[in-house]
Specification:
about 25% helix; about 140 residues; 5 strands; Glutaredoxin; alpha+beta
């Protein structure tokens, strides 16, 4: 059931997420989460700046009321679940740009001034790392 994952900064994409609140799949039968993960990988190939961020997929983050959900995490850092993204290049760019700042942060807390516009309003939950809570 579990498989090894990156210990560095990563974006775990729910590959079974809906395309939108009212559509499960696009016209070609593809799920929104899978499309978003694909857009992130395409952007990584085009922009070396994002190569240190692992893009990983898993079925269902259990955020089903919030389509296109992602979990941004790294060992020893506060993690975040975000959702309600459109599965497109703009969302992929915003998430990866945030993840770059997240990866460079000491504890996973990114200054609001460094948040890309495309992630504002998308945060669902903040998750403390194992063995810690936020002070």
């Amino acid at each position: 059931m579990l498989r090894p994952a990156s210990s560095g900064p990563s974006v775990v994409v729910c590959n079974t997420c809906r395309v939108s609140p009212d559509r499960r799949e696009d016209d070609e039968g593809r799920r929104g989460g899978a499309l978003l993960a694909g857009a992130m990988r395409d952007l990584q190939r085009a922009e070396p700046r994002y190569s240190d961020i692992a893009v990983e997929e898993m079925p269902c983050l259990f955020s089903c009321s919030r389509h296109c959900a992602v979990h941004i995490r790294a060992a020893g850092k506060v993690g975040y679940v975000l959702g309600d993204f459109t599965p497109d290049d703009a969302s992929a760019h915003a998430v990866l740009e945030y993840a770059v700042h997240y990866g460079a942060s000491e504890h996973g807390q990114v200054r609001y001034a460094d948040w890309p516009e495309g992630v504002k309003g998308h945060f669902i939950v903040r998750i403390p790392p194992e063995g810690s809570v936020v002070a």
